[in-house]
Fold each of these.
Amino acid sequence: MQEKTVIVGAGVAGVNAATKLIDNNYKGKITIIDMGKSPHERLPEEVMTGFLGAGGWSDGKLTYHTSIGGQLAKYCGEDKAMELFDEVIANFKRFHPNPSEVQCSDPQEEPDFIKPYFGLRLFPVWHVGTDYLHEIGKNWYDFLVDNGVEFVWEHKVYDIDFDKKEVSLANHDFAGEIKYDKLIFGVGKSGIDFGKKLAEKYELPTEPKSVQIGVRFEAPQHHFQKLIDVSYDFKLYQKFEEKGVSLRSFCTNNNAAYVAVEDTYGNHSYNGHAKKDEAFRNDMTNFGILMEIKGIDKPFDWSREAVKKLQINNTGTFYSPSKRIPSMTSEGEFVKCVVVDSMDSLYDAIGDYALHIEDFIEDMKKVFPTLGNDWGIYMPEVKYLSPEPLVNYDDLSLTRFPNVHFVGDALSARGITVSGAQGTYVAESILINKEATEMEKNSTKPENIEF
Ligand SMILES: Cc1cc2nc3c(=O)[nH]c(=O)nc-3n(C[C@H](O)[C@H](O)[C@H](O)COP(=O)(O)OP(=O)(O)OC[C@H]3O[C@@H](n4cnc5c(N)ncnc54)[C@H](O)[C@@H]3O)c2cc1C
């Protein structure tokens, strides 16, 4: 009988997994279920859902280092991780209408002028750009459909029975079940609450995570140009070991840089993306100032409470000391937020940890002397890291359910390359497993030989 692999989530992880299977002539049936839309129908405001998931509408910065973007090397080792990254980047180029446009920035040295206040993390990044991602998505999707992958769009998976090997899904006029032999669970950030629900239902053993919270900082690009010339996606870094706190600038966007609203659990938080097309140039820079806080009891609940406290009228907040106004999105609307006249709400939400963010901005003012008060912050930016389910390191399967594989942000990733690589890694294990089963079936039993 034909093996059935069901992938929940057509995000970066799920799509790379399916591609690996197809490229290797997988004989089973592949079904991908997603609550969003196909790349031909997905709307610009659908930031988190649909083909390639959050990655499809992201800035398309493909980081190329194992210390960034979440966990991979811990499962498969450094060399294998880099090999998997190469495959993911090759896929993005393969479906790109003009692959030579994908450029790599590879800063080598920390410039002296930032040294007294910040460290700079140096690693290579391939930059695709949001507008090209849409075209890549369409080409990639058509390739998978042409090769027999079945997509079920605009259906939400609301339950999974790991014992019966069955997913339950529904949309406005249909509810039903789909059986699987192998399940790849790649619901990304938009499905973290669902992953958490499953972890509770099956009492899955988990590894605790730290809090990752902060703000999205925005300013005219010229203030940062000196550093951008060294590193496009610069990562400024500060660490306060004794307090269990570290801060980093995160996901820098330049040239045609836009702030994006993320909707998770019905609350707004912020992120950013950059377009490649010159028509979108706004000469702005935005990046997250993200703080990692260790040692907080129930970090996931703590983060959610903090995010809730930063909502006014069902959206996040914006503060600028020089009364800058919130920016426009690339679709020409103001970024959804409520303007506030101080950072007090940040202190209310995360307590004195907010001081580290204020200090980080003060230090930037020293390093980038023209910056002054010419900036604004969108509050909050958050990376919800739900407890990571314990998985077998050789195939990312749940320790109690070996045919259920967790991948991408739903496991321990935080970026495109790591998510895609985890998907590819799982697909490899399915291919090896299948090969082993076929060999077992085909091998004739040796006759008993008596000595
Ligand atoms: C605005 C923005 C910009 C970003 N920029 C970058 C960047 O430049 N570089 C980088 O490395 N990372 C970036 N990221 C992060 C990156 O996009 C994610 O880490 C990556 O997409 C995670 O891949 P994934 O496959 O795990 O999940 P996703 O890509 O998020 O895909 C998950 C999919 O699952 C579907 N889904 C969820 N729940 C259900 C359900 N119950 N039923 C059915 N379907 C479901 C969703 O619709 C979605 O399509 C950005 C994220 C955002 C939001």
Amino acid sequence: MVKNSEADVTAAGPAETLVGMLDAIDTMPAAAALRARSYELLGTGSPIADVGCGPGRAVAELNERGRRAIGVDMNPEMIAIARRRWPDADFRTGDAGALPFEDGEVAGYRAEKVFHEIGDPARALEEARRVLTPGGHVVLIGQDWDALVIDSADPALTRTIVHARADLVPSPRAARGYRNLLRDAGFEDVHAEAHIGVFTGELMLPLLAGLARAVHESGVITRKQRDAWIAEQADRARFDRLFLAFPVFLAFGRRP
Ligand SMILES: C[S@@+](CC[C@H](N)C(=O)[O-])C[C@H]1O[C@@H](n2cnc3c(N)ncnc32)[C@H](O)[C@@H]1O
């Protein structure tokens, strides 16, 4: 259950753990370049809604660029963290399916690493369209959870882990569907870009171990398989042999 007070976030909880992982990824130069690309595509209008803003980095960066940005996240713990980090910025608790904006109130809509967590992405885009002003821009960014490329001595087990972990995500292939989702929602000038995230070293070891643990908990692999696979990845990290890559899709659309 999501806790609903600022005091609750003083102890490291699930949100703090996710924030640690996001910080590690989002401070990488390639991630910063992708965010900069999204800001460019959002055009020059304000305000911009960053939906599923998490700890608020994009909101702060847009504000630094002289744009008025508003971060929205359904998790009050995340909103509390974002407010602590960027006290001058505007953060609101809200759901992508029922945003805290009037019709046509925002000039830009941005959602990064969010749509895979939403069970009904088409509904979220209906809501994006409602809150966007005519001519407003939407930019979606996200990884495809069913297309993780992981080097391993056991490719069959790795394939099982990747696909079974993807099945635990509400919309694991939302990112490959961005273009069609935007077109189906009536957006114009839609285009999609693919960027590749490549990770080596120890940074992503907790994420890889988390994949195997989740798949074991869901009963798809045995404890022995889980432990052997994590041990192999830990060895790879130790000897600089770890390799994880995945496509990150960015898609743009304009509200008619
Ligand atoms: C993986 S984090 C990404 C955070 C941030 N956008 C980033 O790129 O670092 C996903 C965020 O989306 C939020 N989220 C998930 N489903 C949501 C929904 N339906 N409405 C609003 N926020 C949502 C989560 O609470 C979480 O903070």
